[in-house]
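Input for the complex:
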Amino acid sequence: MKYLTEFRDGEIAQRMAAEIRQLTTRPWAIMEVCGGQTHSIMRNGIDQLLPPEVELIHGPGCPVCVTPLEVIDKALAIAAMPGVIFCSFGDMLRVPGSDRDLFRVKSEGGDVRIVYSPLDAVALARQNPDRQVVFFGIGFETTAPANAMAVHVAKTEGLRNFSMLVSHVLVPPAIDAIMRSPTNRVQAFLAAGHVCSVMGFWQYPTLASTHHVPIVITGFEPLDVLEGIRRTIAQLERGEHAVENAYARVVTFDGNRTAQELLEQVFTVSDRSWRGIGVIPASGWRLSDAYRDYDAEHRFAVSDIRTQESTVCRSGEVLQGTIKPTACSAFGERCTPRTPLGATMVSSEGACAAYFNYGHTVQLQRVVSRP
Amino acid sequence: MCLAVPGRISEIFDDGPVRMARLDFGGITKNVCLAYLPDAVVGQYAIVHVGFAISLIDETSAQETLRHFRELGILEEELGEVADEAYAPPPPCPLPS
Ligand code: SF4
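Predicted:
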């Protein structure tokens, strides 16, 4: 395992941390929206570098974690159907549905395949004209352009045996919902850098001014995260609430317009249920009417799914930042990355897994002193 | 699946209707969809997520990021290079049913 001290940048990281300590005069609660940032924070021990007044709250930004149970159960039902090749990103295979996961379906004879890109699933559809190929299209705005293109290519080629089970979620409505929650403690956001590389950050100034909340677009490497935190605290201490781009080497205000155009064509904004959180209005995408034929929910009869949520798992509270994973009674005992009870323990970007993998091992000393 | 890896565009080609590129991620090469970066040229560095190039990045930042991924031992994982067997099925779910 590697820590900040083992990087060439160790000294810079410590300088930045010292600057953050100097800036901080009061307690602040900052949410990193993206699971990739949570992962980086825990893996590199960044939380240990911060002054005790600064609390990092892990946001709902892990696509695997927020995919609703109902959709997982639909995926399981479709994957178990004869004649279906069910394709998914690898980390979805272990996510527990009501009574099993995709691995179980695979071991029981379902043709479940891990693909790297949704275009790989389209290729499988081309190669297997007598089979139905279904791709599990989950994720935030970063993954959506890939999924949109896969559906678009399938339609352009007139492939009749390709469809997608779509469960896309959007970051800005989630930020809005978090700020509107009566139990909210978040005072500033580190926005997800790669979501913004696609969408830009033109949606954020309204959010920042409506909720008087600083939003800093932040990358994923340790120095990126530290810089995001530094800028956020500087704003909080000055009483400001602006949008700042701390990831300018990748993110522009407009984002990737080519991608946004296809997204608009292929998807339509819809209400979405987030696992552990509930429905957030206009917080997701479904396939637009023009692409309805490629919607797996229409192609397969899966509307009468009955779900049964775990009575133990508190991932909803973890995802909303109201409890730390360690507050869950199952954490590290009944629930580990090998035996996950909830999606937040399955995905390496999930907060429970990040705490389990790095939480107890990172020692302050190892982080702040150079060997 | 959340992080995105930078790679160098070494070749650009068409695969049917889709513009593709061959990218070099510090030794590992992969075909990547270039439809969202129509103006990209050979030699540039792009950030890639689930097989799609989504934005350009300068060489220095790209090398730094690649080095970081490598040091953390997550480059292969992020590139989907992990073999199927690595995702061993977990023991049966201990949930009360
Ligand atoms: S530790 Fe496991 S059971 Fe507890 S909240 Fe996290 S995922 Fe759920």
